[in-house]
Amino acid sequence: MTPNDIQKAQQANLLDFLLTAPNQLANKPSLVPNADFTYCSLALTCNESISSVRWNGVCYMTGSDVVRIVAVRLASAGIAEPDTKLLKRNVVSRLRTIKEGRGMLLEPANSRLLTLLFQHNLISTRKSQKLFCWYQVPHDQLLEHELAHHRWKAGLPPLPKTLLRAPAFVDGDYPADHRLRRVACGVGDCPRRFTRLEHAQRHRAAHVQEKPLEGTTARIDRTANE
Prior knowledge:
Distance between the termini: 36 Å
Radius of gyration: 17 Å
Number of domains: 2
Structural class: alpha+beta
Helix content: 25-40%
Strand content: 5-15%
């Protein structure tokens, strides 16, 4: 396979993982007694991986994994070596809009969850850190911001909204009415399609009946966002 083929395959695997990881964990038994903890991972070609962690009925991802996802998607857009420190700072800054109890879990240092993550090599430190609800991370928005920043630095004009809203994962020709709704639900015979990856994730949560975070009042299937 050529490097381009490998990159395309990784993009397809990443999209599938982001959409289906909670389903993979739905019937997976807990790895520890007296708690609901398990996970599944996707290996990336950069000798790293991203993981979906189920803790007490809710699936999470770490902030580091969010940064890795953005980096992989930037590579697919032709930005192979982004400034890692700057990328992390930008992504972390934008993730601050996800508040504790409404899409984010703030774990204190050496908590049981962080200890389990550390023991399974899913994090590198047990210091206090944030975990983000799987269905609440705005992956496409994060990618759009980074693409816009890169083009601005290069002195290029911004991309049209219609191009930004088409997820970078998917290639191929689509009917006219689907050109901006490239992410399919994919659960059973569900015909729903979505403009953004995060909208498809929220919709799929309704299929798997993902338990919302304590204190969350917003509906998971947000039809207004389609």
